[in-house]
């Protein structure tokens, strides 16, 4: 199907870019912040819900069922006594929850990686706002599926539908890709852009962590279903705000046929292949390495979000939803503050590439220390 597309107003290249920006441009950043509230409600709720559901199934025919606090984010199925029945049940539930976490990660990340290749290119054809709306639609549908499964106590397998829909729409990383493109449109090239993106990313993480803190108390107060309803309502409001308030930053002309998969892939991969031939440099090789690194990072982060709460729910920590929320709230304050200060200092001597490598090394050290922790304070120290 061919035909002309909407022509958007593109921000002109000028040294005084700030002078032509309006509050409607920055409203996109605010919406990006607030979307993290929806993620911060949905992610911990689902991890703890699956754990609680599996645990309730294991203890339904035991004396532990009458003392269960699992449906309110408690952790009555946790014991440090390795010879107790509770400890053995806890290990079984932990194993089952870890397997489900693996399934969720696979069904979410595979379509996500594929879709990000497409939506990154489509954002250069259709514009940033329509693709952001597409990504948000996937997030909303995911949360709706989760809420239905929780409310009607459906099989855990139905949750896979929500994770697949979210991944097909780009998921959390698709959200980051489009947001970075929009931020690049409203900032000048250079270190100032890098700092702006870092500050926005850190504030997003701060929102995520602080809301995660509140979610722990929310689960204790009203259970798992109503937090998901709140997440759906918030996401719907943000969708309306996105469409009605934000300004498109990209001027695009093209045909609908340009969205065809073969042309999309050609635009993405062909650009780097052409650059390699023209410049005589290994641009294509660098792209392949960067793309593989991105896929690996997606797997790492998505797996971490699902497994870290399970690690904290289990012995020897035996945390509940409130303690998990407090931990993420602490992390969301400490990590952005330190990373922002450190970036401003090291940017004077090192390139962004070296800083990125050092950041990955710091993550490896952090997670290694966390894996050997056996006291709660060690988890905090690792942050």
SSE layout:
Layout: H1 23-59, H2 85-122, H3 128-152, H4 159-168, H5 171-185, H6 191-222, H7 225-245, H8 261-279, H9 283-313, H10 321-346, H11 352-371, H12 376-382
In words, what does this structure look like?
The chain is mainly α and 383 residues long. The protein has a single domain, classed as MFS general substrate transporter like domains (Growth Hormone, Chain: A), CATH 1.20.1250.20. It is 73% helix and 0% strand. It has helices at 23-59, 85-122, 128-152, 159-168, 171-185, 191-222, 225-245, 261-279, 283-313, 321-346, 352-371, 376-382. Helix 2 (85-122) packs antiparallel against helix 9 (283-313) and helix 8 (261-279) packs across helix 9 (283-313). The longest helix is centred in the first third of the chain and has 38 residues, at 85-122. The chain starts with 22 loop residues before the first helix and ends with a helix.
Structural class: mainly alpha
Order of helices and strands: HHHHHHHHHHHH
Number of strands: 0
| Secondary structure: helix percent | over 70%
Number of domains: 1
Parts with pLDDT < 50 across at least 5 consecutive residues: 1-9
N/C terminus separation = 52 Å
Oligomer: single chain
Give me the number of helical elements: 12
The residue-averaged pLDDT reads 81
Protein traits:
about 375 residues; mainly alpha; globular; disordered N terminus
């Amino acid at each position: 199907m061919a035909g002309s597309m909407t022509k958007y107003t593109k921000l002109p290249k000028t040294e005084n870019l700030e002078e032509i920006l309006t509050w409607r441009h920055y409203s996109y950043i605010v919406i990006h912040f607030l979307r993290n509230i929806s993620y911060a409600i949905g992610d911990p709720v689902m991890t703890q819900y699956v754990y609680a559901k599996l645990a309730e199934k294991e203890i339904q025919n035991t004396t532990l069922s009458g003392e269960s606090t699992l449906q309110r984010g408690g952790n009555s199925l946790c014991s440090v006594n390795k010879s107790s029945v509770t400890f053995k049940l806890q290990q079984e539930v932990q194993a089952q929850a870890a397997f489900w976490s693996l399934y969720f990660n696979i069904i979410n990340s595979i379509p996500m990686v594929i879709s990000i290749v497409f939506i990154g290119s489509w954002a250069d054809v259709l514009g940033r706002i329509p693709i952001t709306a597409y990504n948000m639609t996937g997030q909303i549908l995911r949360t709706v599926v989760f809420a239905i499964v929780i409310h009607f106590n459906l099989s855990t397998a139905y949750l896979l539908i929500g994770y697949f829909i979210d991944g097909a729409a780009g998921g959390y990383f698709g959200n980051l890709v489009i947001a970075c493109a929009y931020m690049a449109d409203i900032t000048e090239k250079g270190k100032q852009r890098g700092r702006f993106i870092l500050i926005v990313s850190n504030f997003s993480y701060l929102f995520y962590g602080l809301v995660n803190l509140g979610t722990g108390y929310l689960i204790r107060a009203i259970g798992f279903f109503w937090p998901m309803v709140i997440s759906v309502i918030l996401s719907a409001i943000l969708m309306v705000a996105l469409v009605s308030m934000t300004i498109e930053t990209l001027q695009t002309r093209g045909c609908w046929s340009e969205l065809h998969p073969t042309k999309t892939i050609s635009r993405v991969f062909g650009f780097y292949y052409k650059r390699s031939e023209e410049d005589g440099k290994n641009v294509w090789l660098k792209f392949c390495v960067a793309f593989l690194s991105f896929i690996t990072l997606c797997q790492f982060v998505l797996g971490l979000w699902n497994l870290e709460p399970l690690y904290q729910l289990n012995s020897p920590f035996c945390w509940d939803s409130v303690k998990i929320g407090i931990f993420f709230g602490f992390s969301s304050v400490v990590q952005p503050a330190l990373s922002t200060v450190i970036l401003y200092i090291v940017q004077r001597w090192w390139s962004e590439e070296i800083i990125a490598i050092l950041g990955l090394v710091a993550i490896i050290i952090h997670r290694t220390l966390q894996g050997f922790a056996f006291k709660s304070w060690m988890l905090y120290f690792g942050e």
